[in-house]
Amino acid sequence: MKIPQKLKSKKLYIFILSIILFIVLIDKIVFPFIVHRKNIVKVPYLYSLSINDASKILDSLELNYKIDDTIFSSKVKIGNIVLQSIDSNKLVKKGRTIYFAISGGKEKITVPSLIGKTLREAEINLNFSNFLIGKISYITSDIFPPGIIISQNPNQNTKILKDSYVNLTISKGSESDKILVPEIIGMQLNEAKKTLERKNFFLGKITFHPTLDKAPNMVLEQFPSSNGFASFGDSIDVFVSIEQKNIIEN
């Protein structure tokens, strides 16, 4: 059977139109999609890397970077990356700029002035500033009264790391200045040590004495004795109880 001419023309028209639509689809949608995918990269994980190492990785991905900030960090080496503006594994176009914050190292804090203060006042100031009391020395002084801080190391206004120690030198007063020795007999050794330090004395020689009727680590005797006088920073020697073992009974 012979196909009418009009039907042939219509089919040809539809075929040509289909070809044109296909070309347009390829040109406007498929090709741009393929090109777009080629320009998309995944952001790498850059935390704690050096700028040099991060730069090499970003160059290979055709990404840019810029250092935008410096922040303190106790975990990341100075100069290495602490934060990145775009999270890792996110998809971005090539040529995108990633901003970094790099580590400035551990935070340094200004040491407060402690000269002229008591040990208790210094302890409060140092705790507030995130420092610790270091070595305490006592020397005689005709200028500073007993119990007053004469010098400190590091000096005031020095910047040092957080949680560092500050050493103190405290006046014992003049040679004639004496203070009352506190009563520590009957105290546990740790408690006695703290009591002496609060009064600016040190725990000196410890002699352990076996005993049956006293709890272990109890102060039995002290020298100088309580109600006596000693200089600031002097040591107080003690006899301390210890459990008696292997007693032979007749």
Structure notes:
The chain is elongated and about 125 Å long. Strands 2-5-3 form a three-stranded mixed beta sheet, with helices on one face. A three-stranded mixed beta sheet has the order 7-10-8, covered by helices on one side. A three-stranded mixed beta sheet has the order 12-15-13. By secondary structure, it is α/β, with parallel strands linked by helices. Mean pLDDT is 86; it is low at 246-250. The chain has helices spanning 5-38, 51-60, 119-128, 189-198, and strands at 40-42, 64-71, 81-84, 91-93, 97-103, 108-110, 132-139, 149-153, 159-161, 165-171, 179-180, 202-211, 219-223, 229-230, 235-243. The protein has four helices and 15 strands. It folds into three domains: 40-103, Trypsin Inhibitor V, Chain A, CATH 3.30.10; 108-171, Trypsin Inhibitor V, Chain A; 179-243, Trypsin Inhibitor V, Chain A.
Helix and strand layout, with pairings?
Layout: H1 5-38, E1 40-42, H2 51-60, E2 64-71, E3 81-84, E4 91-93, E5 97-103, E6 108-110, H3 119-128, E7 132-139, E8 149-153, E9 159-161, E10 165-171, E11 179-180, H4 189-198, E12 202-211, E13 219-223, E14 229-230, E15 235-243
Parallel strand pairs: 2-5, 7-10, 12-15
Antiparallel strand pairs: 1-4, 3-5, 6-9, 8-10, 11-14, 13-15
